[in-house]
Specification:
Layout lengths: L5 H31 L3 H9 L1 H27 L3 H28 L1 H9 L4 H16 L1 H16 L3 H24 L9 H25 L15 H33 L3 H37 L3 H28 L1 H5 L6 H14 L3 H16 L3 H14 L1 H12 L1 H26 L2
Length: 438
């Protein structure tokens, strides 16, 4: 991590993570494609679940980012006992997180859908509750999966992470049609079958992680004897982890708020927003894969005092992320109808959705500055500046813009708010990164 040429190092660390994140994106995309064959109401129900699913992933990922930052720095400083302590304490935090989301699955899901639908089709609410409650019950698999993914990334074993993710995604793809539509001896489960297929896929990913950790022991030893609560250590994990969690959780707030704005113009626009967020995972997850590869490298080199390598890592990551975003922009500009056709056959929805994709994609390339800066700051252990950037992207700028523009030009104004916000935030994020990395 401290001697290999930057380009080769970032490629070796990031390529498996990019593939891993693309594979992870398949979970949501494949679920949605099969669910859409049931009905548009079923797809809307799954789309409305996205904010709470995002919150779940945000907590898991944020805790992992805090662990990742501390582990990579400890390993860079050759403090192996401290690394062991960090690993096992983080595992306990993940267990507590599962208990919280399990409780939420039986208490919050129904009022959450009631607040989103506001008296609309009862079928959407019934299917959504069934889907999201099952997701929460199976969240143990997701939380454990992300824990081991971050642990492997911190120790440079990204190839194992990619292979494990692939096992789970293939399982999900195979089980989706079987469990949703009922094939062979398996009964037709409908929308609940999609949640079961995803949960079982994530559990298989966990099994694969444990297998790799068994055949190739990690430098970080996870043992109950290292489970000694240290307030200072937990504070360090969450000093980075809480801002990172909020970074992702803010997108959950954004989606819920935009759903409320768009619902005034019809459920079609709510569905279009949901489809957009499913499609954009194929861009932002690979870009985040590069950033995940960069994050422990920046932490390691920062801990080792290699400031020049830190800045080179930032620049390389920015260029690669911008390249991915350029590809996404071209796809959304050239074939938006084809992309939307994966989820719906309604001409009116495809036409309105094509307009939305073309407008929103104007901000893709410039958004690479913000996501790279956030990742770099988290790798440096500077969670608060990273949170400032996300606050601009997900609340402070976009929500007022979306509300104001929607009142002027209708739902199209919401789509314009995306690229305007990204352009302004890019300037802010680069300035924040330069000051914080000195």
């Amino acid at each position: 991590m401290g001697t290999m040429p930057i380009g080769k190092l970032l490629f070796n660390m990031s390529l498996p993570m990019m593939i891993s994140m693309l594979v992870q994106a398949l979970y949501n995309i494949v679920d949605s494609i099969f669910v859409a064959k049931l009905s548009e109401n079923a797809l809307t129900a799954v789309s409305l679940a996205f904010p709470l699913q995002t919150l779940l992933i945000a907590v898991a990922t944020g805790t992992g980012v805090g662990m990742n930052a501390l582990l990579s720095r400890s390993l860079g400083e050759h403090k192996f006992k401290e690394a062991n302590k960090i690993g096992v304490n983080a595992a306990f935090l993940y267990f507590l997180s599962y208990l919280v989301f399990l409780i939420l699955g039986f208490t919050v899901v129904k009022p959450f859908y009631a607040s989103q639908i506001k008296g609309a089709d009862a079928e959407i609410m019934e299917m959504g509750i069934e889907y999201l409650r099952t997701v929460m019950i199976f969240s143990f698999g997701l939380l454990a999966q992300i824990y081991f993914e971050r642990l492997l990334t911190s120790t440079g074993k990204t190839l194992f992470s990619m292979t494990s993710q692939l096992c789970g995604a293939l399982t999900n793809i195979i089980l989706d049609p079987i469990m949703i539509f009922g094939l062979g001896p398996v009964p037709r489960m409908g929308i609940r079958g999609a949640a079961w297929a995803t949960g079982l896929g994530q559990l298989l990913t966990l099994v694969a992680y444990l297998f790799f950790a068994w055949i190739r022991p990690l430098p970080v030893k996870i043992s109950l004897k290292n489970l000694k609560f240290d307030r200072a250590l937990l504070k360090k994990i969450y000093a980075v982890g809480i801002p990172a969690t909020l970074n992702m959780a803010l997108s959950s707030l954004l989606i819920s708020s935009l759903n409320a704005i768009l619902a005034a113009y019809g459920q079609m626009y709510v569905m279009i927003l949901g489809v957009y967020y499913k499609l954009q995972t194929f861009l932002y997850l690979p870009a985040n894969g590069i950033i995940q590869g960069m994050r422990p490298l920046i932490g390691y080199n920062y801990g080792a005092g290699e400031q020049k390598r830190v800045h080179k890592l930032y620049s390389y990551t920015l260029y690669l992320s911008a390249g991915i975003m350029l590809a996404g922009t071209l796809l959304c500009m050239i074939i938006p109808g084809t992309l939307l056709g994966l989820f719906t056959t309604t001409p009116q929805t495809i036409a309105a959705g094509s307009t939305a994709l073309r407008i929103i994609s104007l901000g893709f390339i410039v958004s690479s500055v913000s996501i790279t800066s956030c990742g770099a700051l988290e790798g440096l252990g500077k969670g608060v500046p990273s949170l400032m950037i996300s606050l601009c992207r997900y609340t402070i700028l976009i929500l007022p813009l979306a509300f104001l523009l929607s009142r002027i030009v209708g739902p199209t104004g919401v789509w314009h708010a995306f690229w305007i916000c990204e352009a302004i935030t890019a300037v802010i994020s680069y300035t924040v990164y330069r000051k914080a990395s000195v």
